[in-house]
Structure formats: structure tokens, C-alpha cells
Task: inverse folding
């Protein structure tokens, strides 16, 4: 090829020389041109036209075509018709005017013999040839013909034919055409492979650029050699900036060491995978990616490069983390509440009394816990409206709001654990009021009110007041030594940091619960827990 | 060989934010002749006791009003005081360094906690 190319500068493609000279310099220059053009031509047809032009120039033919047998063997498709051939057409067939190559020609007539007999043929008197079938409308009159088979692996798969030499074809033209034939085959096959590979590369590139993953290639020590447009778009690093170890700039500083180790292992292990964070240049935020690298090996199994993908798993990871948190919280809550129920049960039993009464007390406390749990799990925030908590409790025992019962206070939403304890306290107070206090005696009044008080700029307190009046004096305040008393006087201060006051005074119970309070609880009832 | 409890006269720190659970633990420890340090409900109170009191062992609830008790565990470990976690979480929900720690899962029976603490306290020093 290099030797041939050097010939081109020394020769011109003027008229063919006289005499039959195999490996004539003109022929070699023609072969050279065909092989050169094979690289440049963008289509098979363009290459085919060039081959035909060289053949026409070297043989003195007036026109020519280049055709290929179909896989079915019975038909011939055109690869090309020469420029001169198209110019010589005089018919009105619009297909020819649009240079649409005639396909599916039956293999017969004079040209057909080249393929059927598998040999080159000179026909200088086509009009009287036994196989003549005439020419299509608009085709120049065929005065003489030279056809040459084209072989691949010893099989004739195509042919080219030259027409109308001014004085008729001779053995010299046949020799030239036969010498061109292998070069034409080689050029055609090379072009075909190139087009196919280009198409497959384009397909691959379309695929690579179409997938959501960031794709890249690297040498064995993690020096990048290529990065896909997705990588560039995500990280804001140009392909050039990412080359070598430049890609590390997009890796979270915490993950850079792991990324380096990742490549240190590369020579030993078949493929690699790691999770790490990459900076999203569009938002400035780091996102989690799962990165995998697969080695590309040569025929001997040696790793020549690594093909890598980085898949965005940020959303997946956050969902997974959130789910883990929720499951853990759920476990915690369920197990905790069981432990509390056990404790309440123990205390209820310890306080003694007839079994029916113990059962009633326990059921009531369990119901109170259950109500709070239901409300807490119904809202996304897990918070409980204090007013509803109180109303539900009183409603549960049949109390109605009238001039003897008032419930008032601002909208306040308690965290679940606070609501649990406060709910139990309200339950104990209600049970007591129902048995001995304001809810039992027609003269009794119950006033429940709460408000938030600012203590200093950052500190607030929620003060809940349960105030019974008009209750005839009881000989022994029964709640004094029981579960309810312990709950209000000790459990609330212990667990919630509350200050509590529980007085059994003439006229009924006065209970004041003062809870440390963060101001935001007042305003935002539905803050979601992920915030 | 006396029948004295292994916890006899041992100072046991109890950090647990649920009042009733804390009281149950306190009661069970007293019944085992231990001296209860606390109980306290918050991380802050727990840290203070862990740093200022003589303690032989500790029972720590992992979740203290939404805060984690790990810092208390670390302080105690630094003082070579053994501890056991009380938790409603599974091991996987704990940070890796604590997964192999002594853990009593909620809901628990108090005697299990007493046994777990007994196992933490070395026998030596008791006749």
C-alpha cells in the first residue's frame, strides 16, 4: 500500500499505454487510487463509482456498472453505475433521473453469463450474441462489452461490466480489468466492514449516551481515558479535566481514599464496585453513586482497560435510610410501649382491690394509651392535639361540655411520648372525678385550661390546669396513694421534666402540670418527621 | 460460700427515660442489694452522674427522649466501668461499635437485666 501510494506521484492517469503490460504503472496507480478512495468514500456506492471511473479511464470504456449477486443467487443488485453511465441515459424513467439504482435484476443476458459461467467475457458483437436480451429503454446502444467476475474466498459474488470501447475490447483491456478486480473486492469489503463498525460504534455510543449511568473508561491504575456526556453534565468537569486522575475532583473528599484503594485492588480482582458520593455541579450537592468497573481483556486475557459505570443511587439510598429509621423507630415504640404496659399492669395489680376493679383500672389505662397511640400514628408529624386528647378522654366516660364543664386553650400539639404521659394523667384525673369528684356530683364543676408562657427568649412552658370546684368534701381522697398520684407527682417530672402540683382540697382536685415547651410546637402541627 | 447477691453493695447507674421502667429497675436492683445511682432520664443527667459518681456498672437505655446514650457509654468505658444497653432497637439499628456490646432487648423481665449486670461485674474482690 505504501509502495503503491508512492507511485501515484510519479504517474498520471492519462490515456492507457499501448501494448499489454502486466503491472503497468497506470494500472498500479489505478489500484492505489481505488484502495485510497476506499478510506475516503462515505458509502459503498461512492466507492463503486470511483472503481468504475478508474476502470473506464484505464480501459477506454464509455460506461460501466458494478453489481452484486443477492444471497438468493438468482438476482443482481447494483452497487454503482458510473458517472458516465448515468450521463449516457436518455430515457424518461423517473427512477433513473433520480439516480435510483436498479435492483433485483434477473441474472441473464450477456452480463448474466459473467456470473453464470464465472469468467470474464469480451463480447464485441452483442447484437448477434445468442444470449442477447436487449437493453432497457434509454440505455445507450451496446456496441461492445467486457464483463469481469469479482470473487471472495474463490466464489463469484459480484461483477463489473464495461461498455462501448471506441474500437472494441481486447485482451489488454481484459487483463487490466482482471487486475483491478481484486483491488475492487478488497476496497468494497473494507468499506463494508468500516461502515458496519461505524454503525455499531454509533449504536454503542447512542446506547451509552442514552442510559442514565455515567460511563467512562480507564487504564488499570484508574487513569481515565474517556468520559461520557452524562459525566460531564453531572459533575461539570470537562472530558479533558476528568482525564488521568482529574475525575477525583468530583469525588467527595471522604470517599477519595476509598476511590484510590478501589484502583489499587484493580489488578487482583475481576471487577470492582464501590459506593461513594459525587458532586452534582448543577445543585452543588453530593449524591450517592454506585460505581462498577469491568475489565476489558485482550485475546490473551490481559486487562487492557477498564469500562466503568456510575449509577445514581442517591434517592434509593435515602429511601433505604429513611425506611431503616422508620422500622427502627417502630420497633422502639412497640417494644417500649409493651414495657410500659407491663409496668402499669404490675402497679395496677399491686394497688390491690377486687379483681373486677383491677381489671377495670387496667383496661382504662390501656385504652388511654391506645387512644394516644392511634392519634400519634395517624398524623405524619406523630404529634397529638392536646384539646382532642382531653376531649377524647372525657367523651370516653360520657362527660359532655356544658356550663359545668369547660375545656379551653390554644392549639397545642404534643410529641407522642409527652402525649402518652399527659393522656394517662388526664385519664387518672377523669376516673377520679367520675368516681369521687366533679363529674359525679351535680354541684361539681370542672374547668380545664392550658396556655403557653414565655419564660425567657428561648424558653417556654406549657401550663395545663385541671380545676374542680363545688365537690362536697370527701372523707379520704382515694387517688392519693394510687397509680394516678405517682404518675402525676413523680412520673411526669421524671420523664418530661415537668413541674406538677396535685392538691386534694375542699371542693375538688386541683392539678397543675407545667411542661418545658419549645415554641415551635404551637405553630406547626404537621411538620413531617424527615424535616 | 454465702448467698449474697453478686450485686450486693455495688453501685449501679440507671439511665432510663421511662419513669415506670426506671422504677422497676430501681426496685429490682435494690432487691438484689445493689445501690442505685439515679435513676435519671436524660443524656445530660446521665453524663453528669457517669463523670462524678463512683459506679461499678451501668444500665443505659439507648433512646433518651430522642437522644442516644452512646456518649454515656463511651465515658463509662473510658473509666473502665462496664455497662449494658436496654433497647427496643435491633442490633443492626445500633452504630457498628456498639453492636457487640451487652444488650438487653425491650420488653424485658427485670431479672434478665439483673443477670446481665451481674455478668458484667468481675467476681474478684468478693470472697
Result:
Amino acid at each position: 500500500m505504501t509502495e503503491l501510494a508512492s507511485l501515484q506521484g510519479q504517474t498520471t492517469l492519462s490515456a492507457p499505454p499501448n501494448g499489454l503490460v502486466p503491472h503497468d504503472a497506470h494500472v498500479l496507480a489505478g489500484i492505489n487510487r481505488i484502495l485510497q478512495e476506499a478510506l475516503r468514500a462515505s458509502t459503498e456506492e461512492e466507492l463503486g463509482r470511483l472503481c468504475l471511473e478508474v476502470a473506464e479511464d484505464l480501459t477506454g470504456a464509455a460506461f460501466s456498472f458494478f453489481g452484486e449477486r443477492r444471497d438468493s443467487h438468482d438476482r443482481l443488485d447494483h452497487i454503482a453505475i458510473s458517472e458516465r453511465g448515468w450521463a449516457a441515459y436518455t430515457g424518461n424513467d423517473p427512477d433513473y433521473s433520480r439516480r435510483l439504482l436498479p435492483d433485483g435484476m434477473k441474472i441473464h443476458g450477456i452480463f448474466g453469463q459473467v456470473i453464470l459461467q464465472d469468467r470474464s467475457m469480451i463480447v464485441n458483437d452483442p447484437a448477434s450474441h445468442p444470449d442477447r436480451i436487449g437493453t432497457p429503454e434509454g440505455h445507450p446502444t451496446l456496441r461492445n462489452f467486457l464483463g469481469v467476475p469479482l470473487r471472495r474466498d474463490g466464489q463469484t459474488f459480484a461483477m463489473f461490466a464495461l461498455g462501448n470501447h471506441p474500437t472494441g475490447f481486447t485482451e489488454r483491456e481484459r487483463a487490466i480489468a482482471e487486475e483491478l478486480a481484486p483491488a475492487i473486492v478488497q476496497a468494497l469489503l473494507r468499506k463494508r466492514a468500516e461502515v458496519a463498525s461505524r454503525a455499531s460504534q454509533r449504536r454503542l455510543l447512542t446506547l451509552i449516551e442514552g442510559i442514565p449511568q455515567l460511563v467512562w473508561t480507564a487504564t488499570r491504575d484508574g487513569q481515565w481515558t474517556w468520559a461520557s456526556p452524562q459525566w460531564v453534565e453531572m459533575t461539570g468537569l470537562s472530558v479533558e479535566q476528568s482525564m488521568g486522575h482529574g475525575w477525583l475532583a468530583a469525588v467527595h473528599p471522604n470517599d477519595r481514599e476509598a476511590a484510590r484503594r478501589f484502583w489499587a485492588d484493580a489488578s487482583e480482582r475481576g471487577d470492582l464496585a464501590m459506593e461513594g458520593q459525587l458532586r452534582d455541579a448543577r445543585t452543588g450537592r453530593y449524591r450517592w453513586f454506585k460505581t462498577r468497573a469491568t475489565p476489558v481483556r485482550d485475546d490473551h486475557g490481559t486487562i487492557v482497560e477498564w469500562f466503568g459505570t456510575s449509577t445514581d443511587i442517591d434517592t434509593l439510598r435515602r429511601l433505604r435510610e429513611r425506611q431503616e429509621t422508620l422500622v427502627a423507630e417502630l420497633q422502639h415504640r412497640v417494644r417500649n410501649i409493651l414495657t410500659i404496659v407491663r409496668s402499669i399492669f404490675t402497679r395496677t395489680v399491686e394497688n390491690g382491690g377486687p379483681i373486677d376493679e383491677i381489671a377495670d383500672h387496667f383496661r382504662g389505662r390501656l385504652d388511654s394509651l391506645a387512644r394516644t397511640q392511634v392519634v400519634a400514628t395517624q398524623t405524619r408529624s406523630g404529634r397529638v392535639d392536646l384539646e382532642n386528647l382531653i376531649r377524647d378522654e372525657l367523651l370516653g366516660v360520657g362527660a359532655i361540655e356544658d356550663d359545668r364543664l369547660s375545656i379551653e386553650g390554644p392549639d397545642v400539639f404534643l410529641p407522642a411520648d409527652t402525649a402518652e404521659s399527659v393522656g394517662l394523667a388526664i385519664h387518672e384525673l377523669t376516673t377520679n372525678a367520675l368516681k369521687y369528684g366533679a363529674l359525679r356530683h351535680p354541684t361539681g364543676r370542672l374547668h380545664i385550661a392550658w396556655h403557653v408562657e414565655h419564660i425567657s427568649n428561648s424558653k417556654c412552658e406549657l401550663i395545663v390546669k385541671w380545676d374542680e370546684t363545688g365537690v362536697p368534701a370527701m372523707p379520704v381522697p382515694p387517688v392519693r396513694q394510687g397509680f394516678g398520684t405517682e404518675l402525676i407527682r413523680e412520673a411526669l417530672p421524671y420523664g418530661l421534666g415537668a413541674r406538677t402540683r396535685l392538691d386534694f382540697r375542699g371542693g375538688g382536685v386541683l392539678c397543675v402540670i407545667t411542661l418545658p415547651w419549645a415554641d415551635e410546637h404551637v405553630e406547626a402541627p404537621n411538620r413531617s418527621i424527615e424535616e | 460460700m454465702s448467698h449474697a447477691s453478686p450485686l450486693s453493695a455495688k453501685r449501679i447507674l440507671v439511665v432510663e427515660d421511662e419513669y415506670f421502667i426506671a422504677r422497676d429497675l430501681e426496685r429490682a436492683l435494690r432487691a438484689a442489694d445493689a445501690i442505685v445511682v439515679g435513676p435519671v432520664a436524660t443524656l445530660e443527667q446521665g453524663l453528669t452522674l457517669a463523670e462524678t459518681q463512683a459506679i461499678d456498672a451501668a444500665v443505659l437505655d439507648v433512646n433518651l427522649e430522642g437522644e442516644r446514650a452512646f456518649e454515656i457509654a463511651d465515658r463509662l468505658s473510658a473509666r473502665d466501668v462496664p455497662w449494658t444497653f436496654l433497647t427496643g432497637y435491633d442490633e443492626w439499628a445500633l452504630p457498628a461499635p456498639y453492636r457487640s456490646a451487652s444488650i438487653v432487648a425491650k420488653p424485658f423481665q427485670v431479672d434478665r437485666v439483673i443477670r446481665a449486670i451481674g455478668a458484667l461485674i468481675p467476681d474478684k474482690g468478693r470472697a
Notes: The interface with chain A takes residues 17-24, 39, 41-42, 63, 65, 87-90, 93, 105-108 of chain B (CB under 8 Å). The mean pLDDT of chain B is 82. The beta strands of chain B are 11-15, 35-40, 57-61, 63-64, 67-68, 83-87, 103-105.
